[in-house]
DNA sequence: GACGCTCTCGGGGTTTTCCCGGATCCGCGC
DNA sequence: GCGCGGATCCGGGAAAACCCCGAGAGCGTC
């Protein structure tokens, strides 16, 4: 029986290339999508066996789409095919329900094998990533479910974004029309939550998590 | 006459897909390469009309490869096909000699048209990027070649790298075995040279220029 | 209504950063 | 030699950041 595959990536050229590679190796490319929302919608209609998915989908979040798909379609397995291979990306994808994680530097042969094994129910990870997931699992087992997801309040996120831009507390206070002491308080609580020690680390955190790119004013 | 094209990208799947797309539209894919060094070496032998090139080649620098190719092969035009479309990436590529810049979210049709126009000698830029280059040109024309390359001393670079990691002046002083006041002075002169205002902006600068990734101790 | 959370503001302290001047050394040209 | 610019080093003083604390107002939940 043929395995139906769905390809999610915001690059049309990439989608076409992967679709052809898989088609030539006996898979049925049942659908493609360019962003997370479309992926969820189409996957629900098509019910592919494997969703081959990029994490970096321009604006929308690939991780959220993975979570939607794996919860709504328990028979569909998601194989992430991403450029990064970054520690956090891998763990987030796995937490969201991904069955495997391949970096885009993989060869066509590796890709084909990975899709086949994913369809068969085996978890597939690029060399090095499997150990990463295992290590994180152990750390979770040691510390029985405490932080790992320190969520910031809306105001803390506002302040964090401006701190990451290099503004001082007074400049941030002017923009948000509050006291600079309040700004400093938000900075402090953010530092505590993220277990960081100063604004530079805060800026690094914001940059690595893409918080510094988003627009601020929406009303 | 057929246009010979060379494809440089560290993702085999991407290379194959692009090669097939171009092949089906009458281009001759004369060569492919996975990194900058190979690109320069092979391009010198093959002398393609157009080099279709990713900037993000894993370890090696795409910009350096562009510079090599365009200086050594004046008849070869380099069309960058990159994921980012970031301000600095575009400008660096153009400065290195790229004839055009396409983001990877382009369609196959756009890609084919871009390669054709690049071969014909027209500069090709994704919408929005052309204005970016023009704007930068104007800024250069306004300020008659003053800064644009503020070089830092060795010690300033050492300090900058550690500042970008989030270390305080005292921690940096301990590592470099100097007084923390001296560290602060290096920070100050760096701020002046780069026309920045605080350590967070310094960290952003270092991250954007890749200074924070390099190792520090080589002796 | 009690509770918890967020956002706001401030007191009062230490530490760090930011900005200035001043010192030494070293290479380079006159 | 002697000045001159640079790189590197150090210090004083003002500003900002960091850290802990308490407190009121608003807003949902139980």
UniProtKB/TrEMBL annotation, chains A, B:
- Kindly give the Gene3D superfamilies that the UniProt entry links to this protein: 3.40.50.2300
- Keywords from the named record: DNA-binding, Phosphoprotein
PROSITE patterns per record: HTH_LUXR_1, HTH_LUXR_2, RESPONSE_REGULATORY
Which GO terms fall under biological process for this protein? Answer: phosphorelay signal transduction system; regulation of DNA-templated transcription
Q: Does the keyword Phosphoprotein apply?
A: yes
The record's listing under InterPro entries reads: CheY-like_superfamily, NreC/VraR/RcsB-like_REC, Sig_transdc_resp-reg_C-effctor, Sig_transdc_resp-reg_receiver, Tscrpt_reg_LuxR_C, WalR-like
From the record, give the transmembrane residue ranges: none
Supply one GO molecular-function term: DNA binding
Keyword field contains Protein biosynthesis: no
PANTHER family assigned = TWO-COMPONENT RESPONSE REGULATOR
Task: Output this protein's name.
Answer: DNA-binding response regulator
